[in-house]
Amino acid sequence: MTKRIALVAHDHKKTELLAWIEKHLSVMQQCDIVATGTTGQRIIEQTGLDVLRLKSGPLGGDQQIGAKIAEGELDALFFFWDPLNPAPHDPDVKALLRLCSVWNVPVACTSATADLMVTSPLFLSQDFKPQKPDY
């Protein structure tokens, strides 16, 4: 089973996310990728990866990813968010991070945590299945 991941980055973090993706391109090529609109377009243009693009974050893309998390359709979220530039859709960002905690979905918000996640032997392992809460 292929890892299903979401890639999201605020405007000031898109370049950092793209550099991180290129660093881990061989891992990313083994994943089914979903991304918010502009981030997804930049990933496609810079890496050639196949990406399912959703709406832009402020236009509902964060909520679309949240819905995929709630439905069990994503295995991990890589969300390079910018803590120094508050966004008008900040409540959506907090809701998305909250859903990751609610549904026990691994989330990385910095390149350091993202590095640790994708280099873990568990990341691409078919045997690793995080326990999902039974509400």
TrEMBL record:
Catalysed transformations (reactions): dihydroxyacetone phosphate = methylglyoxal + phosphate
Gene3D superfamilies, sorted: Methylglyoxal synthase-like domain
Domain MGS-like: 1-135
Active site: 62
Enzyme class per UniProt: lyase
EC number: 4.2.3.3
PROSITE patterns: METHYLGLYOXAL_SYNTH (PS01335), MGS (PS51855)
Protein family (similarity comment): Belongs to the methylglyoxal synthase family.
Name of the protein in question: Methylglyoxal synthase
Biological source species: Salinimonas iocasae
Gene name as annotated: mgsA
